[in-house]
Write a structure and sequence with these properties.
mainly alpha; 408 residues; globular
Amino acid sequence: MSNRAENRPDHSAGEEGDRQAVWVLIAIICVAAVVRFVLLDAAPYWKDERFTVNLTQMDVASILGWGDKNDVHPPLYYLTVHYWIQIFGTSPMAFRSVSALLGTILIIPAWMVGRRLFGTVPAHGMALMVAIVPFHVHHAQDARMYPLFLLCSLLALLAFLRLRDGVAGMGWKSVHVLAIVASLYTHNYAVFLPVVLNLYMVGLWWMKRRDPRIQRLFRTWILLQVAIGLLYLPWITVMLKQVSDIQGNYWIERESLFRYIFGSLAIYSGTLKYIMTPLVAVGMILLCLPGVLKSALLHGEKGEDGVLRRILMVPVRVLDPGRWQRSEEMVLVLMVFLLPLLIPAIVSQFIQPMFLPRGAILSSLFFYLIAARGVTLLPGRVGVMVGGGVVLASLINLGDYYLHQIPG
């Protein structure tokens, strides 16, 4: 494989470092749990939540039939809530606690994915942002499917990384297949993750097709895709019908590509109605630049001195397959970050408006991860100050979010 030493988990820190990392993760999980469960039943149901409340109290056959005829989402989330409320009742707390619980649990695979890609400190940064950014807190307090969708996607990614790195037995291969299928049965936007991973695997095979390990990996990958296709087959016709039904009859309006993408990044930074969001959004976007440039573009080659020469070489390096081959981790992160945003945005621009920032919720985590990676590349005190400023601004946004949650 490529040189991943600078990006991979810092195992050399030893057992003590691992223990400290776990304790930091536990602290972040506790923060996430508190901010998700506090005031969970304070706000009244909104339109989509009322749909969830009404649908999930029907019997299973009605839930499946309603999704076939009247909804644009697959049924797994509704079935999950249906069985949940059989145990915990039908109060607003019960309906929303599914999302709150899943929104807390997903911090764990998010951190594990981030650590496997870029190391412990960026993983902590990403996990903390997921814990406190109002965008994620809102969806974890909403009786809708997005935390379940995100959790399944993260488990699929974690299993994929282990498979790619040659440390996945049959158990992890099964996790990947089942998590992808579960995400597909949760939200139709889940289709973009398999698209991204298949593009990545085809590129990896093409660049390393003479490597016997990659050949074996690619054969295994094809078999896993066949299994995913077979398990999703019962719902494909329903999904295609749902897509057909919204043609020319969907409530989303067409926007410019710029507004789709940068509006989404602003929403992932806190949502537009909170006072510190512009600061967080600009800070996060700027923080993404050091990690991308260092990993993919501006590494100096032997005998290549001077910042100006390196900058002038950027267009050449962008088109150099060997350079991207040596930056596999950043390539994968950029693909998972950008393609679930760009594909529906382009479709919305030229075919049928269907773009929703919350549909590309997985992209937000990789936005945070690249920014956290950028923080670690800044000089020590500067990195602490910038990272601390983003977290502080996010906490101010979180306080503003709770003020909006309290009726009156």
